[in-house]
Input
Amino acid sequence: MREVADTVEEEANGLTLSGQACNIHERVLVCVSTYPNAVQLLRRGARLASYMNAPFYAVFVDQSDRFLTKVETLHIETCEKLCYEFEGQFLRVNNSDVPKAIAEVAEQNHITQIVIGESQQSRWKQIIKGSLLSD
Output
């Protein structure tokens, strides 16, 4: 059944109209940050992908205007190793606009499920700057 679905998706992608792709298989993307809960999100995303027999991706958006500390760099490397242990693909993207970067990765990889953790911004910052989810 999986082989038939792969064949149908390949044929459908060959017949796309105006650059749109046909998604038959689920694809899971986990958004990783420098916060400790990223490891838990990776595990949750990997389980979700496993249940759906779906490809698994993780993305870290590296903002050019922000330098990572040594601890943060080690955390991201740990997330990358964990992603590969779960047979996923780790993507590191340079972009100062995090929501836009996530949207571009999702579009390029035909993602159907995105796992995003709780915002670490204070309520006041969310009100002033806006939230990732409200953009």
